[in-house]
TrEMBL record:
Disordered, as annotated region: 213-241
Listed SUPFAM superfamilies: DNA/RNA polymerases
PANTHER family per UniProt: DNA REPAIR POLYMERASE UMUC / TRANSFERASE FAMILY MEMBER, PROTEIN UMUC
Protein name per Swiss-Prot or TrEMBL: UmuC domain-containing protein
Source taxon at top rank: Bacteria
Organism: Desulfoluna limicola
Family statement: Belongs to the DNA polymerase type-Y family.
Occurrences of domain UmuC (ranges): 4-148
Amino acid sequence: MPRYALVDCNNFYVSCERVFNPSMNSRPVIVLSNNDGCAVARPNEAKAIGIGMEDPVFKFQELIRQHDMAAYSSNYAMYAHISRRVTLTLGLMVPDLQVYSIDEPFLDLSTFRTADVPDLCRNIIKTVIRNTGIPVSFGVGPTKTLAKKHPALGGFCDISDPVWLERALAATEVGKVWGVRRRYEKFLKVRGINTALDLVRADRGMTKKRMGVNGTRLLSPGSEPARKKKHRGFKNLLQRD
């Protein structure tokens, strides 16, 4: 059975800066764009105090002072070097690897036994942080699209397992599902549909009437979305194969 893992380097640019300055591990840190104009990377500590992605620096100067926040200029040469080290480490453990972006490679785990995958992924997490200092999270699924990480589940999620799939759906806000987003999020939440799992269990007649063909395709096994685009949710909430 096909099985893919998406390895996501957590807050990659910030993690790279922390490798060379461990004193930053417990401080809010942001990495700025080329011209130091806006935030392009934020760990959870910075998100918690209200720093948004691509927020211009002039908007949060006071927050920087109040919270003793460290701000780094982007160093893409360093990030690329560390990315290569992460990739080399992964390649020693799983040779079938595809680099998707600077902080996201895919691993083909199809040749590994299903029972061995969780321990393999946890071993990779430990090995990567030991060899490179970069923390990573795993999302495992039967397709590359469905191999999504879910931080709320502790850094590892295998949705090819029905139990993990249900946990992943429950941990995914309905507004982050492809085909929902802001257009239908308010409509669904008013009706108590707050997560992807709630949406899966929702009345099909109601979703079809309000969301039309997109809602039908989203919730029908084996169907495809009307448009192909990068998204943060599931390509098909009921897809298993």
